[in-house]
Specification:
- This protein has 278 residues and is an alpha/beta fold.
- It has a single domain, classed as TIM Barrel (Alpha-Beta Barrel), CATH 3.20.20.150.
- Helix content is 36%, strand content 15%.
- An eight-stranded parallel beta barrel has the order 4-5-6-7-8-9-10-11.
- Helix 8 links the parallel strand 10 and strand 11.
- Helix 4 runs parallel beside helix 5.
- The longest helix has 22 residues.
- It is globular and about 45 Å long.
């Protein structure tokens, strides 16, 4: 669901604001203008990935002006140090757990334990702000170590499920791209997560040439971005070869939340334009 809240305060350039305003019908309620057509896209949100060059408060200010669902890349410049930052925003949030340096399937027990600890710290922040969490499912370094890594992953999965249960928190594992030895790259790998929540990444599925298969799997959250089937470019919708009509049909069918996860704010606007044409 896109909306433009108090247009005069929106942090977008003039042309972007004119486009976003053109999507809206004059049905103001308490200063908020809503478009029923955009609502039909099923709560499409935006990731702070498009504004990593900004501070987290700056990114939240800009995105909260045009969407009611924001996914925060919880690492690097947008690592969440203080959950109180979110109290001034009315949007719903999802946290993308830290992933650089993390491996919940590591054969080295201290690394696995530390990775789980980072995930559960993220869970605690997410629970405080009422957010779900997206996380990566880990990897193995050598094909010969896959079975042992699967056992390590299952150990981590049990610990994460226990922590999430204590916090009444929802989390999802994201399917990975074409990197060698990463878990959960194709629909055949879904058994690994044992019925836990699944977050579909459209771009990752496309470079593994298995997006149609994932669209028939159950999922609760979606990362929307495009590519040419060869590199994980996180391009705007329409710049690659993904057909997003069946993607959005599957989003509606699964009653899933979804966020645009592209590299620039201009890419977000382009994605909104193209999703609006579906």
């Amino acid at each position: 669901m896109f909306y433009l809240e108090y247009l005069s305060h929106a942090s977008c350039n003039f042309q972007d604001c004119i486009f976003l305003h053109s999507l809206l019908l004059p049905a103001a309620v308490s200063g908020i203008i809503i478009t029923p057509h955009i609502q039909s896209l099923v709560m499409v949100g935006i990731s702070t990935y498009c504004l990593l060059e900004k501070t987290l408060p700056e990114a939240l200010d800009r995105l909260s002006a045009i969407t009611s669902l924001i996914e925060v890349v919880d690492e690097g410049p947008h690592f969440v140090h203080d959950a109180s930052l979110f109290k001034s925003y009315s949007a719903d949030f999802v946290l993308h757990a830290p992933y650089h340096g993390m491996n919940i399937a590591s054969l080295f027990e201290p690394i696995r334990e530390a990775s789980v600890h980072v995930m559960t710290d993220c869970f605690s922040v997410a629970a405080e702000i009422g957010a779900g969490v997206v996380m990566h499912p880990g990897y193995y370094a050598w094909e010969q170590e896959r079975e042992q890594a699967d056992r390590q992953f299952k150990k981590s999965l049990q610990e994460l499920c226990e922590a999430a249960g204590e916090l009444s928190l929802t989390f999802w594992f994201e399917n990975m791209g074409s990197m060698n030895f990463f878990n959960l790259r194709t629909p055949a790998d879904l058994d690994l997560i044992e019925g836990c929540g699944f977050a579909l990444d459209t771009g990752h599925a496309n470079i593994n040439h298995c997006l149609p298969g994932f669209l028939h799997a159950g999922f609760s959250h979606v990362h929307i971005h495009d590519n040419n089937g060869r590199s994980d470019s996180h391009s705007p919708v329409g710049d690659g070869d993904i057909d997003f009509a069946p993607v959005m049909a599957a989003v509606r069918r699964n009653h899933a939340t979804s966020v645009i996860e592209v590299r620039s704010f201009d890419g977000v606007v382009k994605s909104i334009r193209n999703l609006d044409k579906l």
